[in-house]
Request: fold
Amino acid sequence: MVNRVISYIMICSLFFFINCGGDKMKNENKLLHAIGELHEKDKKASLAGDTEILLSLFTDDGILIPSDGEIVQGKKGLREMLEKNQEILKEYNLVEYNQDFKEIKIIGKYAYEWGYYNGKYISKTDNSEVVGSGKLMRILELQDDGDWKVSRSIWSVDKE
Reply:
């Protein structure tokens, strides 16, 4: 009888842990899907040159650490940097922009991701191409509404 009770407890425990693991996996898949939506918004806004949407993808205290130049902090600094970049690139159309993240790891309400990016611009004046690529790492923060935003970002630019 004792063996039967122990077996029953072990089987119930096994089902409990399997169900908990399944729920955890479902939740992680949901969170990864939401990160994928952030990536897609980033790509679409970058291709459209939409400063407002790009800005909305960052937390209020977002920080960018570019491969050269000053560290950019907060929404005001991010807006200034994005507008400056738009002015510099006004004679070009961004026609390709890709991110290839090799790892995305979720830790509570934060996630980190690292990988590669590449893009291609076409000159509006002479149709010449300018291509660029590099590596990036970002820390994301889960918002109360289930969306992810970029909290910290650092990147490097590959040498041509």
